[in-house]
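re: ur question from earlier - yeah i can do the single chain one, its not a big deal. heres the input i used so u can compare w yours
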Amino acid sequence: MLGGNKRAGSRHVAVVMLMCVFWYVISSSNNVIGKMVLNEFPFPMTVTLVQLCSITLYSGPFFNLWRIRKYQEIPRAYYLRLIIPLAVGKLLASVTSHISLWKVPVSYAHTVKATMPLFTVILTRLFFGEKQPTLVYLSLLPIITGVGIATVTEISFDMMGLVSALISTMGFSMQNIFSKKVLKDTNIHHLRLLHLLGKLSLFIFLPLWLYMDSFAVFRHTAIKNLDYRVIALLFADGVLNWLQNIIAFSVLSLVSPLTYAVASASKRIFVIAVSLLILGNPVTWVNCLGMALAIVGVLCYNRAKQITKGREPPTLPLSQNSHVKYTPLEQPNRDSHYRGSAVNGKLSNGLHKSTPGNSLLANGSGMPSGTATRLLFV
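and the output i got, formated as tokens:
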């Protein structure tokens, strides 16, 4: 039995590591190809449209083939209150992400995106009133310092690129926060949520693209002359973005949020390194120091969240949305009439001392011990 558990654990680790390798390779390829496309075809809104079309067109048939469970019934009011704003947020984050990729190097854009923990802390405070421990706030300092150094020393700096990267990071952070809420509230499959948001974003974005970008795109030489290289790069960018989203969601479903955050930070390092190696944008050692400090700051933030989470007292769920702090009764202060209190070697209700098999009475707290306790506490 022990050997079987070890083999299952080893198999799980191997699957996660293989998925992470695919994730890193696909993500770095997507960013490099996206930069190459935008250098030759400077239409970030059109690149966004291609990616949304890829999510919409490929997801339905493939998810049915993989037997991903169908959509859950979502109330109309909830749809208007959360799902549509999420789709708008995804759209805004995608467009601004491509603008930043167009205006600044991939390495700098991803360094700025390391500020996601900062936006997460600010947004959770604004929307949910959630306060963080001092250690978490301190862990944000290396991120801010690193991004500041990278910005000051960036040779190819562009203000629009910086602002777009910050807006896209805020958008993705907001999307992460509210996607978790939607997944919990509706029990929809995470890949079906990805498909739904992609379809809605495309529906909202298409009129805007027709008005702002379509005429200029059809007049561009790459489209007029049917430049197969640009068209092939656009197609590859759409497919890679779709695969990257699927693998990222799949990794998240296989590991804990902390492990996912560390894997995501490691992916950012990989993307920056690959982009510097392939695209060859010039950097200074101080610039590299800023990038490294920002990424280390993300790892420090994840570690600080883990430490502070471990210090929180357990809570006992009363209902789906309410919790109370659970504190065991102290032995000396127990009422003699309390069920489970011992009087002259017997329980106060006249029963003999509980046997180990009766876990509800064995610990004298009215709560099951061992594994069952871990399942009950949130």
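Residues 148 and 246 are 32 Å apart (CA to CA). not sure if urs matches, ping me
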